[in-house]
C-alpha cells in the first residue's frame, strides 16, 4: 500500500511539472531554480530540465520536490488570504517543510 501511495505521489509531482504548476509555484514564492535545486540536492540544470519537460523527476528526488510543492501550495493559499483572511503578500512555508533547508 505504501508503494501505491508513492506511485500516486510521483504521478502528482510529474503532473505538476507537465502542467507548469511547479514553475508557477516556485516563481510565485520568489524562489530561484538554484534555491530549489539546493533543497532537493540536485544541480540547477536538473530542475531547469524538469520545469521545461526535458526530463522527469524520479524516485526520492521527485518526492522531496513534491513536499516542497505542497508547502508552496499551502503558502500560496495562505498568501491569497483564502484560509486566514490576512492576504499576506509573502508566503511562509510551514516550519517542517523541506524549503526551510534552503
Ordered list of secondary-structure elements with their pairings:
Layout: H1 2-19, H2 21-28, H3 33-40, H4 44-51, H5 59-79
Helix pairs in contact: 1-5, 2-5, 3-4
Could you characterize the architecture of this molecule?
The protein is mostly helical and 102 residues long. Helix content is 62%, strand content 0%. It contains five helices and no strands. The chain has helices at residues 2-19, 21-28, 33-40, 44-51, 59-79. Helix 1 crosses helix 5 (59-79) and helix 2 crosses helix 5. The protein is globular, with a radius of gyration of 13 Å. The protein starts with a helix and ends in a 23-residue tail after the last helix. The model is unreliable at 82-92 (pLDDT under 50).
What labels describe this entry?
102 residues, 0% strand, 5 helices, mainly alpha
Distance between the termini: 32 Å
Oligomeric state: single chain
Beta strand %:
under 5%
Helix content: 55-70%
**Sequence stretches where pLDDT stays below 50 over 5 or more residues:** 82-92
Strand tally, please? 0
Mean pLDDT equals: 81
The gross shape turns out to be globular
The major beta sheet can be summarized as:
none
Amino acid at each position: 500500500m505504501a508503494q501505491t501511495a508513492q506511485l500516486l505521489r510521483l504521478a502528482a509531482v510529474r503532473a505538476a511539472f507537465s502542467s507548469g504548476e511547479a514553475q508557477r509555484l516556485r516563481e510565485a514564492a520568489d524562489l530561484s531554480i538554484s534555491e530549489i535545486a539546493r533543497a532537493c540536492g540536485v544541480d540547477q540544470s536538473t530542475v531547469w530540465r524538469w520545469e521545461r519537460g526535458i526530463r522527469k523527476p524520479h524516485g526520492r528526488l521527485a518526492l522531496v520536490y513534491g513536499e516542497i510543492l505542497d508547502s508552496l501550495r499551502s503558502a500560496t493559499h495562505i498568501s491569497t488570504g483564502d484560509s486566514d483572511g490576512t492576504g499576506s503578500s509573502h508566503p511562509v512555508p510551514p516550519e517542517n517543510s523541506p524549503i526551510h533547508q534552503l
